[in-house]
Amino acid sequence: MVSLEPLRTAIDPQSDSYRANYDAMSALVDRLRAELKRSTVGGGEKYVQRHIERGKLLPRERVEMLLDEGSYFLEIAPLAGIGFEDEIPGARVIGGIGLVSGRECMIIANEATAKGGSTGEAGLWKNARLADIARENCLTSIMLVESAGADLPVQSKIFVPGGRGFREITRRSKLRIPSISVVFGSSTAGGAYLPGMSDYVVMVKKQAQVFLAGPPLVKMATGEVSTEEELGGAEMHSRISGLSDYLAEDELDGIRIAREIVANFNLKKPPTPQQADFDEPLYDADELLGVASADVRVPFDVREVIARIADGSRFSEFKAEYGPTLVIGFARIHGFPVGILANNGVLMSESSAKGAQFIELCNQQDIPLVFLQNITGFMVGKTYEEQGIIRNGAKLINAVSNSTVPAINIMIGGSYGAGNYAMCGRAYEPRFLFTWPNHRIAVMGPQQLSGVMDIIKRESLIKAGLPVDEEKLAASRAALESQIQRESDCYFATARLWDDGIIDPRDTRTVLGISLSAAYNRAVEGTMAWGVSRH
After folding, report:
1. Measured between alpha carbons, how far apart are the two ends of the chain, in Å?
2. Tell me: the pLDDT tens digits for 474-531?
3. N or C: which end of the chain has fewer CB within 10 A?
């Protein structure tokens, strides 16, 4: 990259606004840390202790021992299902990206201390998302299996869509993306198909038990009496059925074998344009806590964010004087080239048009996209409609929809209305999507939405010739505003897998670096084929 002048900061860490933002964001980060800590304790002390007394490693210990020494672990959706009735944060699944024998892998572990590692509705969503990430980024999957299968009381919500998980394992195999199952304990019913569909299966002696139906159900169905080991033990599957490819002496041996399998792979990672040497940003990432507004209604200059995540704080801005509410340009992050699209206000007609052009340029040069989303939506009003806000907004959405280079989205503030779509929200399949703890997401803000509904109800009553009960309308408006406030919260969103996790803003550069490296396990190829746009 041509040597560029770094961005200059206008942040004053001593200012009242900076301190207020810093304190508010720090409180949000403290809550995030507490919630993440809560997500690591499994099914509770009683069940964790029972697991340990059986001589087993805890699921997170299995993950840690599988990873290379010093490897990162980018956990995906660690708070899935948070707030759901009868569900633990994380939805009884641990999933993320880390290095195993020098290769980036998707690691998935059943949280066996919570309902036997069974899968509920949120767990189904999370497993599907982990499968998507593995396929989209050509990541070997290593599944650390100890699962009771479907959570039977909620079978109506998971049985039919649950079959997709097994389908995806075999489809990844067809795409030359291997899956490895290491079975540590009971893997029953649907859980039995995890190893059944995998390319490689390791079973731990005297612990692993894989069967479609356990002894009680077999006896009831057929009258046959057998022990769990006879029916589906590791030694039987290794010596008789052939389901197991490797018989491990114990859990550590099973983890060793999985690492050995990965070490023997001959599939090479495509070459990347990552620079071996790169500079850290000039400004401290800690300042991001004071840069971003804890209140998403208060704007802030997104260049201050870019200056703290880009290599050397260098940013080659494109069309800086045109459509200034969308800041776009080229940079490098951890040595990887990226095209950045960052909101600096409401999307206008001009900013939408230049965003579409920039996405096309990045596709032309096979450059991944990084979206920094903080958007209230598109500008509305008679003048803006006449200027073609819909036409140019559609042009931007067209470009986002048809772009084929990897897109990584960090939601650093609000995400409202069609702005979510234009800035590559979840429905537009970014490779990765993370949020900051100040994030809010909805069709529109709570006050605006409740106000719109108030106007509609009021006009409807007047049109029908009915009296307007101000007290009743005010109560209805307050109730709706409270509902939208709750449903806009970042924890409501992350519980439902609308993102891949809430992150500390100071970790943004690291998360982007890992995501970009993972994306390059598949050849990065742009497109010059676009749908029809109105000009």
Report:
1. 33
2. 888 888 888 888 888 999 999 999 999 999 999 999 999 999 999 999 999 999 999 8
3. C
pLDDT tens per residue, range 404-451: 999 999 999 999 988 999 999 999 999 999 999 999 998 877 777 778
Q: Please check whether residue 333 is in contact with residue 512, taking contact to mean a CB–CB distance below 8 angstroms.
A: yes
- For 219, the 3-state DSSP assignment is helix
Q: Quick check: 500 and 432 in contact, CB under 8 A?
A: yes
State the Cα–Cα distance between residues 213 and 228, nearest whole angstrom.
10
DSSP class of 239:
I
Nearest Cα neighbor of 162 from 117, 118, 124 is: 124
Backbone angles phi, psi at 113, to 5 degrees: -80, -5
Contact 81, 120 (CB under 8 A): yes
Collect all residues with Cβ–Cβ distance below 8 Å to 465 and sequence separation of at least 6: none
Paired with 6 in beta bridges are 314
Q: Which residues pair with 203 in a beta bridge?
A: 183, 247
Q: How is residue 41 written in tokens? A: 């304790």
Q: How many helices (H) and strands (E) does the chain have?
A: 20, 15
**Would you state the structure tokens that stand for residue 306, as one six-digit string?**
């870019």
CA 485 to chain CA mean position, Å: 22
CA pseudo-torsion sign 348, 351, 355, 357: positive
- Give 455: exposed, middle or buried? Use CB within 10 Å, 0-12, 13-18, 19+: exposed
SS3 426: helix
CA 322 – CA 344 distance, rounded (Å): 13
